[in-house]
UniProtKB/TrEMBL annotation, chains A, B:
Phylogenetic classification of the source organism: Bacteria, Pseudomonadati, Bacteroidota, Cytophagia, Cytophagales
One Pfam family per UniProt: Peripla_BP_1
Keywords (A to Z) from UniProt: DNA-binding, Transcription, Transcription regulation
Source species, domain of life: Bacteria
UniProt protein name: Substrate-binding domain-containing protein
Length: 336, 336
DNA sequence: TTGTATGCGTTATCAC
DNA sequence: GTGATAACGCATACAA
């Protein structure tokens, strides 16, 4: 796979490499004739600049490193689409890495991104990440970083997330307004940001409507956990009249558990999930959803990052950007 | 984001860059003391080799370019996981690109991969790709390429696919054996390889059992098409007693259409889809599936490609590797 | 308007 | 064992 280089063009046209280089970049100091000559030759022999050499020379790669826990997850793949779209518009390419929810993989992956000289990093933290000191040191070294979705308060970088609090609040409020009183919350690992924000929204809504917060109605699960059936069964012993599930997988598992027990939705128990699965509404027409603005999160995060990269304004402190979720009520859950 | 370089180490330790380079690569010609000195310093100041410089020098990037139509598709994201796993084991990294089912995007993306000096390419063709001449010329230039899933007969490169013929045959056979006679086939664009292979399997099974092939029972759809409802309705006018759907989306749409019309599955109509959606079985316990070995396809394809890259044996002609699918019958579709 | 020289970080080929 | 030097492909400061 050897391609033609500037040197080849220079030799063929009996010019110097610098002239060719300038002609190719359409520099004003090159005569029109020479430009034409070079450009024609380049096109004819399909010259393509070696981006590796360019990166080395210019000390920038025009690559954004994206680290997500999993690609095989509709939310993240949509976020990536958003990132890609925004990056494409501004001449950047996206290098995708997966941490597989493992802190070690996240580190390996982070180092790769740095070794490959990514111009900036877009990160959604793995669920097993508690130590962000490497990220902190990177940030101190002025590597542009933007966190999205799963963020960390210990890092002083721009963050783009769904309005998790608002989404959980709205969902809970909806359940309360339609007559529910014992709203269970089944959620993901307790130490990641989105869990806490959603829990806070859930709790705030309960308190707002004078319903006490009952920790017996809240259960945490692991991402790795394959079977959440037992946890749901355990919750069911608390006789809830509604579920707020913090992920696609949990919502769907709830659905399965309720069906298995012939518990009617929404007649007996209401179900709202934080779900972005495209077929969710087909699963059961009564599965309501807090839909996350995945594309928008990706777009915003990429824009933030590229702004950071290009301005190099380390003063630019945008802080947290929170994008509204959308509550899609698929069937009235009003108690009759 | 400036990291320490070999030069920095050399200066600090009053050595030459070549000595440092050799010490870092643990060359036998460097004295143990010097090695220790260099290695200690490197570790202390967290030296990391610049992969861009390395790539330029060695004319290889240890990067595999992967081009898929869409990431937000369970099949492809699983394939990517398989690729990543295999690549990781052999010291390669994966650069993921999406063609978004567009030929133009595929070209842009292809050029990016080349410009970034990917050591080899793993490609699943976009559905709008009919012209493979660029790929042909790349292949002639000895760029290692392996196709997977959506392949092309015009390209003389190794291919890794599901056994689409076998999968469709087995599914159709199952339907026939359980008493179905009018088996409709709703499928994806006609000109991509998997469509033709699946159609051939479907047809072969019909003929094997003495059922004629009726083209009125076959319908093609586009990937871009948002609403396939009309096509399904059209098929329903042919009074089929079974559906073989060629994708997740089509299977799910069939399901929705049947439910809407209160057509019982499998009592009235049987449904088998080429589906890998994790929640498919929850959608309807009667939705049977031809499951594709996504992980395995990814692994095999990556291994093939890395073999190609490393042996540089352009004689190595493995041809087509076809990995069995799995027919998962979720409810007996026997006619009573 | 064009050419010469230098450097990005690394490795390889020579010397010594 | 170690060091000087060149080279990968490109871009630019400086000459001419």
């Amino acid at each position: 796979m050897d391609s033609i280089t500037i040197k080849d063009i220079a030799r063929a046209l009996d010019l110097s490499t610098s002239t060719v280089s300038r002609a190719l970049r359409d520099s004003y100091e090159i005569s029109p004739e020479t430009k034409r000559l070079v450009l024609d030759y380049a096109k004819q022999f399909n010259y393509r600049p070696n981006q590796i050499a360019r990166s080395l020379k210019e000390n920038r790669s025009r690559i954004i490193g994206v680290i997500v826990p999993q690609i095989a997850n509709n939310f993240f793949s949509e976020v990536i689409n958003g990132i890609e779209a925004a990056a494409y518009l501004r001449g950047y390419y996206v290098f995708i890495f997966q941490s597989h929810e493992s802190y070690e993989r996240e580190l390996v992956t982070l180092r790769q991104a740095i070794d490959r000289k990514a111009d900036g990093l877009l990160i959604s933290l793995s669920s097993s990440t508690s130590d962000v000191s490497l990220l902190q040191s990177l940030q101190e070294k002025k590597l542009p970083i933007v966190l999205f979705d799963r963020v960390s308060a210990e890092l002083d970088v721009p963050c783009v997330t769904s309005d998790n609090f608002g989404g959980a609040f709205a969902a809970t409020e909806h359940l309360i307004e339609t007559g529910r009183r014992r709203i269970a919350h089944i959620t993901i690992p307790s130490y990641i940001s989105i869990t806490q924000e959603r829990l806070a929204g859930y709790r705030a809504a309960l308190e707002r409507y004078g319903l006490g917060y009952d920790e017996n109605l809240v259960r945490y699960t692991d991402f790795g956990q394959t079977d959440v059936g037992p946890v749901i069964n355990d919750l069911l012993t608390q006789a809830p009249d509604a579920f707020l599930a913090a992920s696609d997988r949990l919502a769907i598992s709830c659905l399965a558990a309720l069906k298995k027990r012939n518990i009617a939705i929404p007649e007996t128990v209401s179900l709202v999930g934080f779900t972005n699965t495209p077929v969710a509404d087909l699963l059961d027409p009564a599965l309501s959803a807090v839909e996350q603005p995945a594309l928008e999160i990706g777009r915003m995060a990429a824009q933030q990052l590229i702004d950071l990269i290009e301005m190099k304004a380390d003063t630019l402190r945008v802080g947290r950007i929170s994008i509204p979720t959308r509550l899609v009520v698929r069937a009235s859950s009003r108690l009759t």
